[in-house]
Amino acid sequence: MTQKICVVGLGYIGLPTAVMFANHGVRVHGMDVNEKAVSMVAKKQLHIEEHGLQERLNSAIDSGKFTVSTEVEEADVFIIAVPSPINDDKTANLDYVRNATKSIVPFLRKGNLVILESTVPPRTVEDVMMPILKEAGLQFGTELMISHSPERVIPGRVFEELTNNDRIVGGINEESSRLTADLYRVFVRGTIHITDATTAEMVKVMENTYRDVNIAFANELAKISERIGVNVWEAIKLANFHPRVNIHMPGPGVGGHCIAVDPWFLAELQPELANIITLARNTNDSMPEYTALKTKRTLEDRGIQYGRVAVFGLAFKGNIDDMRESPSVEVLHHLDELGVDYTAFDPHIKVNNLERQTQNMQEAVSHADVILVLTDHNEFKYLLPETVKDLVRSKIIIDAKNCMNRTAWEAAGFEVLVLGDGK
């Protein structure tokens, strides 16, 4: 069994991965440049929200198998799990990957394995990492093994999916792949599929691009349905009864560290060929403005001149605290541009740099004319109308996620408008 792993990056992927290995008997050292995050983890405090993480973190640290600091330590395996965001011009920002790779070079020794988990543009291992790792003076494929094994998890179900999902392993040679697959078999019950590093990079980007294109199709259908008087949610549900159809659901935009980012990696590599990919990205990026305009028109059509909006949800998906690339933030930006007054509320988001946010739902809905639902948290799905009906000024709900109990809210006197419902 591997003697020691050093995980570089203790975020939404790195920390769960680290504690999984530690709780399966492997010594793990976690490193992150974020001093506050390291300090919190060392004290068994969470800086991210993930179901089951607290218990697993407690167990990992109490066992003595998991240590953390802001410095890299010598190890047998180095796993790089750092962000790979996009720049303002929609190109890949690989600075985190470069810096993480540079940070481990002084600690590399013969027989080590380096694994990149971050989602990256194809050829990143070959064109970005390997020239840096060459500085260690070790022969690739014999003295230093290198692989790409991208995560395949969804926030809120990370541990279930880390364990049960199939995993892609792409090494620079057969031995790199074999060692990487053997490592992940410590906790992975799904099938581990072996390929080369660049194909593994391509696979991960393809998976998220497929989903992005599918969501863009659903968003186009939602816009068309509103124009022609069709409930797109009912139509999609019925269409999906076809055995070879699986249309995703529309919404106020696409967020997260993968679907909203990865397609741009392909568009950047081959812009003249990535026509459908680019169109889908632009379609989904247009939804926050579409949602904000729908909100403003709703107020104007009802003669509400100085309306106030209670925005429900800042996270990019339900029941998590992750705001990365969240379309909700863009909706707020467009509401600002349109001069619409609002207060945002999200029970899962404790710290951010937004000015008009409250931790109190009653404060958010007080004297509001519209409740705009952007995230399908359970706290919103199961909210009772009686909780807010005496606090709002006008009883209007715009449900961009189709998650509210429409019958119950309408019975309480609310007008409920669902994104994509043309009825």
What brief labels describe this structure?
423 residues, alpha/beta, Rossmann fold, 2 domains, 14 strands, 39% helix, globular
Give a structural overview:
Helices cover 39% and strands 15% of the residues. With 423 residues, the chain is α/β, with parallel strands linked by helices. The chain has two domains: 4-196, NAD(P)-binding Rossmann-like Domain (Rossmann fold); 287-418, Rossmann fold, CATH 3.40.50.720. The strands form two sheets. An eight-stranded mixed beta sheet has the order 3-2-1-4-5-6-7-8, sandwiched between helices. Strands 11-10-9-12-13-14 form a six-stranded parallel beta sheet. The chain starts with a strand and ends in a 5-residue tail after the last strand. The model has no long low-confidence stretch (mean pLDDT 95).
Tell me briefly what this model is.
Helices cover 39% and strands 15% of the residues.
Secondary-structure element order, N to C: EHEHHEEHEHEHEHEHHHHHEHEEHEHEHE
CATH hierarchy, class of the largest domain = Alpha Beta
Domain tally: 2
Task: State the CATH superfamily name of the largest domain.
Answer: NAD(P)-binding Rossmann-like Domain
Q: What is the 3D shape?
A: globular
* Secondary structure category: alpha/beta
How confident is the prediction overall: mean pLDDT?
A: 95
Number of strands: 14
Terminus-to-terminus distance: 61 Å
CATH architecture of the largest domain: 3-Layer(aba) Sandwich
Number of helix segments? 16
- Residue windows where pLDDT falls under 50 for at least 5 positions: none
C-alpha-based Rg, rounded: 23 Å
Major sheet? 8 strands, mixed
Q: Strands of the biggest beta sheet: in what spatial order?
A: 3-2-1-4-5-6-7-8
Say what the CATH topology of the largest domain is: Rossmann fold
